[in-house]
Amino acid sequence: MKKVVMKINGKSHQFIVEPDRVLLDLLREDMLLTGAKQSCDRKGQCGACTVIVNGKAVRSCLQKVANLDGAEVITVEGLGTPDNPHLIQEAYVLSGAVQCGFCTPGMIMSTKALLDRNPNPDVEEIKKALEHNLCRCTGYAKIIDAVTLAGRFIRGETTPDKVRPDPNGPKIGVSHPRPSAMIKACGVAAFSADIKLQDALELAVVRSTEHHAKIKSINTSEAEKMPGVMGIMTADDIKGTNRIVIIFPDQPILCKDKVQCLGDPIAIVAAQTKNQAVAAAEAVKITYEPLPVLKNPREAMAEGAIQIHQEWPNLCFAQPQIKGDAEKAIAASAVVVEANFTTQINHQAPLEPEATVAYIEGEGEDAQLVVVGRSIQIHGMMANLQEALGYENVRYEEAYSGGQFGIKAAMTSEGISGAAALHFKRSVRYIPSLAESMLLTNKRHAFDMKVKLAADKDGKLTAFTIEYIVDNGAYQIIGIYVIMRAMWMLSGSYNIPNINAMGKLVYTNNPAGGAARGAGPPQVTFALESAMDMLAEKIGMDPFKFRKINSLLPGQSVSTGMVYEQWPFPELCDAFQPSYDRAKKEAADLKSGPIRRGVGIATHAFGIGGPGDAGRVAVELDPDDGITIFAAVADPGEGNDSMLTQIASHVGGIPMNKIRLVTRDTDHTAEMGPAAASRMTYMAGGSLILALEQLKKAMEEVGSKTYEGLRKAGKATHYVGSKQAAGQEGPLDPVTGQGPSFESRVHNIQMAEVEVNTDTGEVRVIKMTTAVDAGTVINPHNLEGQLHGGIDQGVGYALREEYIHGKTNDWNTFKFPTMKTSFPMDVIIKETPRVKGPLGATGIGEMTMVSTAPAVINAIYDACGVRIYNLPATPEKIKAALTAKK
Ligand code: FES
Ligand code: FES
Q: How much distance in Å is there from the Cα of 823 to the middle of ligand 2?
């Protein structure tokens, strides 16, 4: 033990510490300064824990407190408060640099240290200073903007008041700061692991070390005797179905007789401290009888393969799609290309690990189980917990969430916390490590695709055939839905008269596939858009012109047979043309020597408002004539809070500071479906407008806009709006795959400019350009932030990222995007208001993720003449292809 005296945020403190206590723990646990976050497992990889020590930005997880006697520490809480923020905090908020906000405190502290020594840094200096700070949401573009703006504030060139949009001015089309941005920038927004419950037990989970095995025995006797252990529970202690379910009830909260996947949970240890719980979990002894491990769908479909789930065959779902006669059309076509493509299992990689807390509120019959986590579908989660745990009185609350990108459509750690709180009758916290979070979460599905694409002699598409086999992993999270989503959007931007597709979903012993930004379309679009370039080359036509002449036109049908009346893709092509011409011209000069420049494009028409989709939002006129919006609309970083606030203020004519949001609690909201599929602006925004219109009608009827006026006239002050997407006719026909698709589409052209080092196979992204028509823009910063983040994730998917179960366990083995891998991004926006969209808007969360990877792959081909068919396009693959080509 050592005595240490430190100044923290200007105040002197004395501590007696153990030699290995790190500053991050001291700040978060002893000082309750939870602005410094933990993403990586204290490996110095994430920078979320950055604070300033003696004037330097340091990662607090790497600092032993014992070495800090006499040090001066500043944390994000020491810079400013929401009522009195520091100029850097203002700059982050006003630049739209705060999405989920989990990385923000660390970013801000690195910015402070930089600007203290250099108030006028250039972009390269900013990148260098923030190179240890990771962000998954922004693609770093707006963070660089924020640092630049902070510098201008600090140098006195402008002020926050001059930059801040007028809150009384227009509400739509203006980058009003997000409602939660400032509390995140000041480090006082509570994320799950920041919630401190009195006397809570800490949990650790015993996880399978086998990929597929029968459980022969679970021996907890040694572990139970270990220090601090309060109890150990197994599947037998769960009273309900013990099943996590979105589509099939195939995933246990705790496995009883069998494990299907490495990392499957088997027992929960509760102890007084986290370390005690982890140590005891390691002492629980499991004996297994190993079973054959099915590593991919082809093995799982082979004759005689072991069936992973008794109730469902390994090939658990298949959906064909037939439009016209593709085989006949191909036989008659002038040009045909044929190829196989594969995509990898990938991690959505939210920065925040899967922490949850749970506790019992009230007593006796009123005792309510409260689970606080990161769900984007709080009502679905609550219903699943009720059934799985056999306990009716459940409330789910969404804490602030450090990104999710689809991962939180499914239950991850909530079942563990909820089950433990009920069993041990105590408050509990389950804060898994990053490595464990990776083991326990669902992943982007790997696709194996066989494609033919054909055109006539004039370059008009005639037919497309595709068979895609999808690795479902060990559990059915949304696998069937991924097959359907791929089919609903299969023909992308184009008019393809003849289509023959088959999607197959296959259980393996890989991690469960789940929702992941785009979920289905990114994989099939990679194949289609690669084939588009191959076909354009065979025809001898410029790939952009080829796409434009094949645009679907209003009145024509997509692959499902659904006809669209709005299809503003050709107009978007016109807006994009000058950027394309510029890029091609620049690349033409760099076609020799070892470094070659290439330009690639890809497009997509992403669907919004799927068949049968519905929303439900309530508004309440408050006594001060403001409005409270009650809606289960999660906002893990997309900007849904802004969307609701700005629409309500615009439509209701009520100042933004009088719009209140109740969005994170199942007790006060109704089911709204997941904050996924880019649907919230369209569905929740649309429902909100329907509710507001009823309120306005009531106001008109009584001739008063006040709460008092409505009450006196006996009118209700509470109204519910429910938007229903058009395609309610049901799912696709199981034989033909024909039927409704999405009510509206977002149009996009993506362009990658890359340099390929033909000696090493390395690819450098010079610039990405996105042209998008998503209808009316509600908040430009939020829109751009979503576009930037999607592009950055798309580039990672194309070039670097791959999740290998059991091997990928931190932000190095995952190859997380960094400031170093970031690149400039241009955004071209067209606004064609959508007939059925709220104020003409659609949704934009996933669009740029979908078409980025094929744009990058096409650019690599344009640069050096090698085509990569299997993502990711690593330097090794490119170099091997270059060698093979010689
Ligand atoms: S927690 Fe310190 S760098 Fe990740
Ligand atoms: S805003 Fe950076 S990780 Fe979400």
A: 17
